[in-house]
Every structure is written in structure tokens, then in C-alpha cells.
Amino acid sequence: MHNSQDIKQKLQQLELILRRELMLVIKDSLKSTEVAHVTMQTPLGQLIDYLPQVKLADTDIFTRLMRLDAAYCQLELGLYGLCSDCEVDIEAYRLITDPTEQRCTQCEQKFSREHRHELRLDH
């Protein structure tokens, strides 16, 4: 169903975009005296490990990098495109829209309902 080379290429393109975004975020978040200990060539796992150290674990970029890493792992294991909850095929349009998608529509709706309280802001 899925061509692993095409998928890998899409994931690599997304990774490049995310790495560029991350470098800008890191540059903007560090004080002028601090030096970023990551580059565009830093392995993905090290990037993900670095973000909590510079207080960026609660950012959208961190979440997107985690999803990217999960997609790479799934591709390696031959599980890419399967829902992480129910293990049925994720709808093609969802993967085209976001190649790091982890859930089918039904499971995503269920997950959103169950975790909606986490999205609320406490005032």
C-alpha cells in the first residue's frame, strides 16, 4: 500500500523544514551569551533530547519532532500507516495531509474527547 521510499522522502523533507524552524526557535530563545549545542546535522534523537534542556519540551516543534521520530520508527518496523491505537490502516488522506499521523480518524476523535481537558487553559 505504501511506497517506503516515497514516505521516507516526505519524512526527510518534513524533517528539514522542522530543523530549520527549530534552529530559529533555539536562536530566538537563547540568551545572547548562550550557545546552541545543536546544528542542522545533529541526529534527530539528540535534538529531541536537547529540547527539554533548553525548556522547549512544551512547544509545538517538540511535538512535531517526536511524531516525526515515531513515523521513522514505524517505517523501519514496517508499521507505518497503521493506527497506534487500533492498528487498522490510517486513511490515506490523513497521511497525505500529515505523514506523521499516528491515528485513524475514529481513534483520533476518541483520543481528542478523552484528552480534551488537557487542552483547556487554567485561568
From TrEMBL:
Zn finger (dksA C4-type) location: 83-107
SUPFAM superfamilies given in the database record: Glucocorticoid receptor-like (DNA-binding domain)
Keywords on record: Metal-binding, Zinc, Zinc-finger
Keyword field contains Heme: no
Record's keyword annotation contains Zinc: yes
Name of this protein: TraR/DksA C4-type zinc finger protein
Zinc finger DksA/TraR C4-type domain residues: 78-112
